[in-house]
Amino acid sequence: MLEVKGLRKVYRSGNREVEALRDLTFTVDNGELVCLVGPSGCGKTTLLRCVSGLLDPTAGDVRVDGKPVDGPPPGMAVVFQEYGRSLFPWMSVRDNVELPLKQKGVGRARRRQLVEQSLDAVGLTGTASAYPWQLSGGMQQRVAIARAVAYEPQTLLMDEPFAAVDAQTRADLEDLVRELWKRLGVTILFVTHDIDESVYLGQRVVMLSTSPTVVQEELAIDLPDQRDQLTTRADPRFIQLRTRVYEQIQAAKRNAVH
Amino acid sequence: MTSPRRGNPARSGSTALLGAAGLAGLLLVMELAPRLGLVDERYLPPASRIAAALAEEAGTPAFWTALTDTLIAWSAGLAIAVGAAVLAGIVIGSIPVLRSLTASTIEFLRPIPSVALIPLAVLMYGTDLGSTLLLVCYAAFWQVLVQVLYGVADVDPVAFETARSFRFSAWGRIRHVLWPTALPYVFTGVRLAASVALVLAITAELVIGSPGLGKEIAVAQASEAVPTMYALIVVTGVLGVIINLLARTGERRLLAWHQSVRGEVTA
Ligand SMILES: Nc1ncnc2c1ncn2[C@@H]1O[C@H](COP(=O)(O)OP(=O)(O)OP(=O)(O)O)[C@@H](O)[C@H]1O
Ligand SMILES: [Mg+2]
Q1: How near does any CA of chain B get to the CA of A114, in Å?
Q2: What domains can you pick out in chain B, each with its CATH number?
């Protein structure tokens, strides 16, 4: 279980202070897929960096299965917003996916198997020997996902992973995430600024306010488990839910103004 | 698309042809100027005499010993400097406190011309190989160190955080993120240092009289064997060209990914 309690983060550089997060509290149960939606610049990346132990919060704490996070915890993988820069250009796709496994101490044969399986799973069979910069943006993002999946994490954090790909690729990748989640039983915290995406993907949506950032509301997504780009998005319940999320985010903006 | 620097094959072919023509022209001028009495033959013998002297030199064991001495001083000095600079650069570059602590010291030490250390070298090593090594090392070290520092500073924070999030060991982060990022810079540093190292090796031999081509040039000059002196100068020039060529080829071969990332044409 992932617990975020009273999380606050203030960036200090010289005498300039930016309060990126004011007070965040929420939990993600094991095996859950939670979407975190909030306007651009509200501190989503900051939150993920705190959760993944890459950044020390100013106050509050993050716990994974009860253990406080004070550095990157084992069993967690992050898919970064800047996926292009997160892949190593001096390594082939295979080596990119394999390296974290090597660092983790996974045996050679098992590594091979995991690399193969994960590349197959994201539909990148046969590109193992290519270099990341030889691939399209959508393919690069899938390599980043494959790398995270091959790592066999219990918790997967994804930071606006589809922000920079076209609508069609985006739809495919959304379905890919749902499918991987169901198959692997991982806990996923998925960050996005796209309201429709958050409702389509999540079992629950946590809405963040504009800065100074707090949790605006949480909403359970009671759509059927079997989702489909056409029918789910046309489902009246889907429309209701997305309207609800939209209203909340608008309300957050109004509150911020007054 | 072709990069403006590289040009297309036909272009580079004709460039090579033009270059060869230029060189032939130079040789012709060097042959004719002294023969026509435009310059004093004592200071610039005709190219053919220089060539003859070169052939004669190549037949003496002393020449080959001198060449070997120069190459040893050059390569050993360069190797020591590169090793030390890479190590120092990675340590200094990855520890911010060290970085700011050493910044001004480096800025002070770096511009000191190596030749200013000649008296110190003589004091320490006399006319031994050590003198040459000291000067070569000093000159080459800063070239590489500065580049390594640039390289380490160029590490992409996202790539580095990726490594951290996958719990890479400290060594893993250096080996797989820091080093590959710094490598192109290291190459630039080594290429610059290789040329500087040759200059310093010849200078040290020439001025101090430590064994090598530089010393032979001084000896030839003292014994008024002017064509031999020129022949040896030509040899040092050729060495310089070969070193540069090797460094560039190595760089291109090993950093194919890097050039491609920067959108240049790969060979
Ligand atoms: N390293 C930093 N130093 C200072 N301020 C920062 C730093 N990183 C982020 N910030 C500030 O914190 C706030 C939140 O940034 P963050 O990147 O977390 O937002 P985000 O919700 O991920 O935005 P986006 O949707 O555009 O990715 C912004 O105001 C930003 O300027
Ligand atoms: Mg962000």
Answers
A1: 16
A2: 45-259 (1.10.3720.10)
